[in-house]
Amino acid sequence: MTEPAVNDNKQAMAALKQHGEKIVWAIVAVLLAYFAWQFYQKNYAKIDTVAADAYTLIAERNDALMLGEQNPDLDAAAKEALAKEEQSLLADIDKLVAEHGDTVYAWQALMIKARHLSEHGDYAAAIDTVKQAQGIDLDDEGLAAIANVRLAQLLLANGDVDGALNTANTVLPQAFEASRQEVLGDVYVAKNELDNAKAAYESAWKVLSERGENRALLSLKMQALGMDVTPIETAQVVAEPMAVNADDIAALQTAEAQGAQAEEPAQDAGSDTESDTVSQP
Length: 281
Description:
With 281 residues, this protein is mostly helical. It has helices at residues 3-42, 49-69, 76-99, 104-119, 123-134, 141-157, 161-168, 177-190, 194-211, 216-224, 249-267. The protein has a single domain (11-267), classed as Tetratricopeptide repeat domain (Serine Threonine Protein Phosphatase 5, Tetratricopeptide repeat, Alpha Horseshoe). The longest helix has 40 residues, at 3-42.
């Protein structure tokens, strides 16, 4: 890899590491809205308008919080105000779930709560929250798959590698196969089973290629393991639910460490052998 390419790769990884959590949750928010609408169309007679109104306010406040958090120039007072609003939002989510716990709105609200918890590094609480969402019987494969993939990511971030592996091995609808395979790859990297990781990433990339969907983070993970990545001619922006798993900070740290290792053999005379190990986060 040339020096400019290495520098570009490092910069891309640094940016993804910094903003990965926000990227994935922004996409999750869009997908939640989409699958909730699908659920609504199938179950319109059962809609709880009170829950719907409560969730609409929660979603609007969550959007405002996300916007505020992106402001790099917040002073101490503004940060304190945002923190108080976040706590108020989480309390209102708990209230919605307590009063309308069998609705899709409770499910959506719990996924929002999980995002806030994970962004603060409270992965254990985020895991419990996603499991609570999974306990709502909505009979919808799309929503169940989103929660399953998210749970696997959170388990891995929390250091439960075996739990993440078991969760990621759950059979999901084909529409989620690329996301499932990418999470599997992340788990195998954490286990230092690099051949399995490469196979999983390759499977994910194959599915994305067939759909004409590019995924920058997955490409970086593959390159960090010394894999050849065939460029994908993008056909559409998002063809598969849960298209990005960028929130897995542990995987990003591992990829960054592997990228640094990849430079070292090039400095050794006559050495062009790919490293067989990945530093663990």
